From TrEMBL:
Chief subcellular location: membrane
Organism annotation: Massilia atriviolacea
Annotated CDD domains: cpPDZ_EcRseP-like, S2P-M50_PDZ_RseP-like
PROSITE patterns found in the cross-reference section: PDZ
Protein family per UniProt: Belongs to the peptidase M50B family.
UniProt-recorded Gene Ontology molecular function terms: metal ion binding; metalloendopeptidase activity
Coiled-coil portions: none
Name assigned to this protein: Zinc metalloprotease
The organism's taxonomic lineage, starting at the top: Bacteria, Pseudomonadati, Pseudomonadota, Betaproteobacteria, Burkholderiales
Leading EC class: hydrolase
Length: 464
């Protein structure tokens, strides 16, 4: 069932993005007077086709749903060459260079417009997102040394307001990639405000691919710990008399403000009996709990669901503000994608970050199972990535054609056919290599990923 959900989610996310992209090409081509012969969703063997409109454009679904194309009248291809004077007037290469640029650029632009619409729509409906309050951090972290403490809420980064943890991470990531510092506007639990500064040196060398904020000392705030389901009454929690709804106050005299602290203390016990102080119906009780250690996985557990969730905030905007926020988010995603590509090209970020259709399908399935907001957000992010990717100056991609036409604008004449042909061949080779690398990374990511135990339930013990 999970595999079926993943496949359906993948098709339902990638399919509309491809259709929007190709509709961009199709619409502008028609506006520029170019005759469109075929609109295809997918590549390879045609499995369904119908003809519509005055031009009898063929609309088809092809075997491989990993892309699409719009085929126009084009004298460079014997199969699509114009045969009459009327058709020659509607042939693609006879259009001026600015019309050809508009037709090519319309595909990526359609993806960006779709992302803006989806992000904007989500902001209008209202999105529940993790807030910017941070929990207790290690004293050795840059954030602690800058003055932050558990419970503080970051409201701005380098002058940019932040209302969600995602925005906080985004602004921090930009600072790291720009090799700058952080100037944080912070509000304490009592309402007092102060500023904290993390210099560029504190951000240098931080892992942009992992838990960047946690590494800097700004882990997301978690609510106080309460016990959820206890699946096995004969397990450690059940034997100790723990009940669903108990709120954990301390363990062995150490305060437990959130689930991360509980996991750490349980992990450090590795089989030693712990004194849990819990609150139940207004009473304080002490329960002696002996965690179990699974020697095969080296994981300690109390066999109880630990409820400690991030603090959520609801972000809801009006029509105009939502549109602006959608455009801003799309722009930020685009810039960050380009920066990451640049970092990979210069070796500052590992090429293992390059992902392909397998990872996209995996995330499509995961977000679809999480909820509609997460799935729509995923679609918007992929739409931005598709737009950015197609604008890369690689022959055979839209960006490669835009590069040709830009040179034509500068020189006043089109590139020689021989140069274009050689560039196209090189582009195909490069694209195949990138796809192979992305597929390799996808496979390695799936085969090397260790099984993840249920959240907040298991804690890995140190080896003896």
């Amino acid at each position: 069932m999970t595999l079926l959900t993943t496949i359906l989610a993948f098709l339902c996310s990638l399919g509309p993005l491809i259709i929007f992209h190709e509709l961009g090409h199709y619409t502008v081509a028609r506006l520029c007077g170019v005759k469109v012969l075929r609109f295809s969703l997918g590549f390879g063997k045609v499995i369904w086709s119908r003809r519509f409109g005055a031009d009898q454009t063929e609309w088809v679904i092809s075997m491989l749903p990993l892309g699409g194309y719009v085929r126009m009248l084009d004298d460079r291809d014997p199969d699509t060459r114009a045969s009459t004077d009327a058709e020659r007037a509607r042939e693609y290469t006879r259009k001026n260079v600015w019309q050809r640029i508009a037709i090519v650029a319309a595909g990526p632009i359609a993806n960006f417009l779709l992302a803006i619409a989806v992000f904007g729509g989500l902001y209008m409906v209202g999105m529940d997102e993790v807030g910017t309050r941070v929990r207790s951090m290690d004293a050795a972290t840059p954030a602690y040394q800058a003055g932050l403490r558990g419970g503080d809420r970051v409201v701005a980064v380098n002058g940019e307001p932040v209302a969600t943890y995602a925005e906080l991470r985004w602004e921090t990531l930009k600072a790291v990639l720009d090799k700058g510092g952080l100037r944080l506007d912070v509000v304490q639990p009592g309402g007092a405000r102060y500023n904290a500064t993390l210099p560029p040196a504190a951000l240098a060398g931080k892992n942009v691919e992992g838990d960047l904020l946690g590494e800097l000392g700004m882990p997301m705030y978690l609510t106080p710990v309460s016990i959820g389901k206890i699946p096995d009454p004969a397990g450690p929690a059940g034997r100790a008399g723990m009940l669903p709804g108990d709120r954990v106050v301390s363990i062995d005299g150490k305060p437990v403000p959130d689930g991360s602290v509980l996991m750490k203390l349980v992990g450090q016990s590795c089989g030693r009996t712990l004194a849990f102080v819990v609150e139940r119906a207004g009473r304080s009780l002490t329960l002696m709990v002996t965690p179990e250690l699974n020697k095969a996985t080296n994981v300690s557990r109390i066999n109880a669901q630990v409820m400690s969730t991030p603090e959520m905030v609801k972000v809801t905007l009006g029509l105009v503000d939502a549109a602006v926020a959608g455009a801003r988010t799309t722009w930020q995603q685009s810039v960050m994608s380009l920066k990451m590509i640049g970092k990979m090209l210069t070796g500052q970020v590992s090429l293992t970050n390059l992902t392909g259709v397998v990872t996209i399908a995996d995330y499509a399935g995961k977000t679809a199972r999480t909820g509609p907001v997460e799935f729509l957000t995923f679609i918007a992010v992929v739409s931005v990535s598709l737009g950015v990717m197609n604008l890369l100056p690689i022959p055979v991609l839209d960006g490669g054609l835009l590069l040709y036409y830009s040179l034509e604008v500068l020189t006043g004449r089109p590139l020689p056919d021989r140069i274009v042909e050689l560039a196209q061949r090189a582009g195909v080779v490069l694209l195949v290599m990138l796809m192979a690398l992305a597929l390799f990374n996808d496979v390695m990511r799936l085969t090397q990923a260790a099984p993840t135990p249920p959240a907040n339930t298991y804690v890995r013990c140190p080896n003896d």
